[in-house]
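DM from R.C. (forwarded with permission)

"hey, sorry to bug you on a friday — could you get me a structure for this? deadline for the figure draft is monday and I only need the backbone to look sensible"
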Amino acid sequence: MIKKLQRKFILITAVSLLAVLSIVVTAINVINSAQLRRSEDELLDMICENGGKFPELPRDNMPPFEKRDLTKRESFGNRRNMNEETRFQTRFFVVYYDKSGNFSHSDVKNVAAVDEESAIDLAYEARMDDSERGMIGNYRFAKKEIEYGEMIVFLDCRQDLRTRSSYLLISVVISIVSWLFVLGLITLLSRRVMKPFIAAQEKQKQFITDAGHEIKTPLAIISANTEVIEMTSEPNEWTESIKNQIKRLDGLVKDLVRLSKTDETGLRQEFMEFDLSKAVAESASEFEAPARTHELDFTLDIAENIMLVGSEKTIRQTVGIFCDNAIKYCDEKGSISVKLKTHHKGSKLSVTNTCKHPPEGDLSRLFDRFYRSDEARSRKGSGGYGIGLSIAKATADAHKAKISCSAENGFITFSITFRS
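My reply, with the result:
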């Protein structure tokens, strides 16, 4: 149980950290892409505003009046990250069309990877696109109407595309390495985090075991005193009630100790192959007589020669728990059926009894320790303290089996599905 809780803690932490890193990496790359796109659009706008040419930027060695006039004329006041080297770093070409929509001429002197024919083909694709801006291959384009027709400016963005890819790859690699590093730390430190819980669990188990032994002594004395009373006087309803309560309390103590031992041993118990069909049939048969005493119809439907690798003792206890539970909570003059069948590549054990008014809510809560539904609690003489089904669940967990409860059409079924 401790290892299972430790694994669950590591899993939840790892998934949470992975989710946070994924959000951070996504946000960083989205912001980076948006900034690059904004820079591309600024360059396109500047070229479009200058008639398809890259404007001359102010240089440091210019006379002040020329720099002032040039800055004012070209409207560079709102341009960001522009300098005298920008024109040499920017690769672009322009295709012009007349008012009739026919090709006029092109300007490809500012790019080496595209000739006039390729430029015309790219411009044709851009004209087929209804949007004013877009992306074709490595080129981002912008359309602009001019005095004598239309021009389409293409900006070479392969450097930005490489930057986006590198940025994404680096951020993902760093995130994965960080995640693995933190996961390793969590794995190493999880045992220390679980120490208080482990200590509390061990104390609880020790308390249950010690209390079980201590309670047996007063129970034995009460039982002996009751027998003396019955010897000196005739048995009566009061002595019978005392004996019944002693029996119930003794059963409770045994169940608590059994549950504690099941948790303690867990998957460490020694498993071996045994005949599951025989074990279920023999265990269930012991409840035929009690069922008839309560005027209940009890049937067995056990497939033969089903083998299982596990603990035969705990499986027999589980069959007894299911059958005992069915007898206690079956409707008057109802029916109980015990079935064992092959299921896919494994096997399925199920115990069904008539139940016109099954517990409401989540039926899986019936496997919680000390949980009993209101109806079950109100049943007179049913006995039990809500421990039996939790023992069955512990047994199922130890065998890596699936335990479930379902209610439909006036029947309630408890089942365990074993893997092969």
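R.C.: lifesaver. Residues 2-161 form one domain.
me: no worries. The first strand starts at residue 92 and ends at 98.
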